[in-house]
TrEMBL record:
Domain of life: Bacteria
Record lineage: Bacteria, Pseudomonadati, Pseudomonadota, Gammaproteobacteria, Oceanospirillales
UniProt key word RNA-binding: no
GO MF, one annotated term: DNA-binding transcription factor activity
Keywords: Activator, DNA-binding, Transcription, Transcription regulation
Pfam families xrefs: AraC_binding, HTH_18
Keyword Cell inner membrane among UniProt keywords: no
Name of the featured protein: HTH araC/xylS-type domain-containing protein
Domain HTH araC/xylS-type intervals: 191-289
Species the sequence originates in: Halomonas huangheensis
PROSITE patterns tied to this protein: HTH_ARAC_FAMILY_2
């Protein structure tokens, strides 16, 4: 079997390089060591934020290829398969956040920190929000590199500010203070559901089981999902199953029967019907398309 590589930091297999829960460096520092090409991989417990000021990148993100030019912001959450091919003239920074730091942000900034859980590629528009984000990244880089008094406290404050600015940028700089308490509770329920699905999707729990664990009724849970995510709870579970199936069909040599069994299907034929219904392709045809050049 050929598994998807899981790395500790940006294409390498060594341990986390500092006692901090944050790592910051220029994109060129590491990518030039790899001839500007970081092959597809994923991280179990790291989040990347890449901010490109100049240059171009060919980005592989969950099996899709994007060609983009700076100015650009890229978010790569845990377990998201990604690879980069930068132009040699690339200028920018990459911030890597360890899971405990992301969890701290989730506790402190439950709404804004959602930005770190979804893969995204966003062109930086002209204006104050983009400039503030770039200035924050550069401030973090400067503070990260020097052992000054109060460094940890200042880095913590800067990362919180960066989380808020990145979130505002992603939603069009809306004023989050106008969000109602009911809306906040719904978002929290959705986040808990996403975490529950992430840990249990291979067992294919039913909607009633998910709702019970969240201490909600099935009808209320589905109402929240449709309002917040535009899909039912079952649809969200199915989307996660399809995503994992696509990953394994693309990046491993597991047989279709092995993938079916690993994703909790009772038989490969049922998995094949399920996958084709949601993607338009049988698992076998999908794998062939991924393996065909161009």
């Amino acid at each position: 079997m050929s598994a998807i590589p899981v790395f500790s930091l940006y294409g390498e297999t060594d341990h986390w390089p500092t006692p901090d829960l944050l790592h910051c460096e220029s994109i060129a520092e590491r990518s030039r060591l790899h001839d500007w090409h970081i092959r597809a991989h994923r991280h179990a417990d790291l989040v990347h934020l890449l901010v490109l000021y100049e240059g171009e990148v060919e980005l592989e993100l969950e099996g899709a290829t994007h060609h983009a030019s700076a100015p650009l912001v890229i978010v790569v959450p845990p377990l998201c398969i990604h690879g980069f091919h930068f132009s040699p003239c690339i200028q920018g920074h990459i911030l890597t956040l360890a899971a405990p730091l992301v969890e701290q942000l989730a506790q402190t900034l439950p709404e804004a920190s959602r930005i770190w859980r979804r893969a995204s590629v966003q062109v930086l528009p002209e204006g104050g929000a983009s400039q503030r984000l770039v200035e924050l990244v550069r401030h973090i880089d400067g503070e990260y590199r020097r052992p000054a008094a109060g460094r940890d406290a200042l880095l913590s404050a800067l990362i919180q500010a960066l989380t808020i600015e990145a979130s505002r940028l992603a939603i069009g700089d809306h004023d989050t203070t106008s969000v109602t308490n009911a809306h906040q509770r719904s978002r929290q329920h959705l986040r808990r559901l996403e975490m529950l699905i992430e840990t249990s999707f291979r067992q294919q729990p039913g909607v009633e089981e998910l709702a019970t664990q969240l201490e909600l009724s099935s009808a209320h849970l589905n109402s929240i999902c449709r309002q917040q995510a535009g899909a039912s709870a079952l649809n969200l579970l199915h989307q996660r199953l399809v995503l994992e199936a696509r990953r394994e069909l693309t990046y491993t040599n597991l047989t279709i029967a092995q993938i079916s069994d690993g994703l909790g299907f009772s038989e490969p034929a049922y998995f094949t019907r399920f996958f084709k219904r949601l993607t338009g392709y049988s698992p076998r045809d999908f794998r062939k398309r991924q393996q065909t050049p161009g």
